[in-house]
Design goal:
Metallo-beta-lactamase, Chain A, globular, 7-stranded mixed sheet, 231 residues, alpha/beta
Length: 231
């Protein structure tokens, strides 16, 4: 079983899968005696269940808040496996996830969509790999949203940054631990929407690094320590 990795302070990570075809991002847990905040839901109920087992094995409290860094499937499809959590996201995520929730998800639907648009292939093959079955699956729309910033009762800070990857992208900052969780905020658009001119948003990267947090964590890479951090 994969275990949670302690990063700093009260931040723990369930590591991403380095296989790019798996599209399995890291999931973060920010936990102390005030409770646990989960950052991203996992790419499927199976993934979410593995994270739940790792949280229990680490002796951390079960999450009561689940934050979506953005609406993409690999960050939200595990949400139906999380019980008794309040799901929080940026306002722009609501319409996007409501549209996703109306789709007739199944392996046949995935095949049909790829046949119509082959550029969907990498993403939709990864979805098929993540979902051995569809019983009980649903796309969970956020219970609470915000526009610019939101500070949770545990002191965790959420900030909308947008960007080309997803309009609802937000970053999650735990000042007590010196950790900023980035999701995919500086990535180019998804493959099926990407043009030859699209690339990483290095302007956004530069602005976030200028804040000089001790750790920066995007969802598909190992954590990066800030070399000039004072934290």
């Amino acid at each position: 079983m994969v275990e949670l990795v302690h990063l700093s302070g009260r931040v723990w990570l369930y590591p991403h899968d380095p296989d790019p075809e798996a599209v399995r991002p890291s999931v973060a847990v920010i936990a102390d005696d005030r409770g646990s905040v989960l950052v991203d839901a996992g790419n499927s109920p199976v993934h979410a269940t593995e994270v739940q087992q790792a949280i229990a094995a680490a002796g951390l409290p079960a999450p009561t808040i689940l934050v979506y860094t953005h609406h993409h499937w690999d960050h939200t499809w595990g949400a139906s496996a999380w019980e008794n959590v309040e799901v929080i996201a940026h306002t722009a995520a609501v319409d996007l996830l409501e549209a996703e929730a109306k789709r007739p998800w199944s392996h046949q639907y995935l095949r049909d969509q790829v046949a119509e648009n082959p550029r969907l292939g990498p993403s939709f093959r990864a979805r098929a790999l993540a979902m051995p079955g569809w019983d009980g699956f649903e796309v969970i729309v956020p219970h609470r949203t915000f526009e610019d910033t939101l500070t949770l009762p545990t002191g965790v800070q959420l900030r909308h940054v947008g960007g080309n990857h997803a309009p609802d992208s937000l970053v999650v900052l735990d000042p007590e631990s010196g950790v900023m969780l980035l999701g995919d905020c500086f990535y180019p658009p998804p493959f099926h929407l990407r043009t030859d001119s699209d690339g990483m948003d290095f302007g956004m990267v530069k602005r976030l690094l200028a804040e000089r947090h001790a750790w920066y964590v995007d969802a598909h890479s190992p954590p990066r320590g800030s070399p000039d951090s004072e934290t």
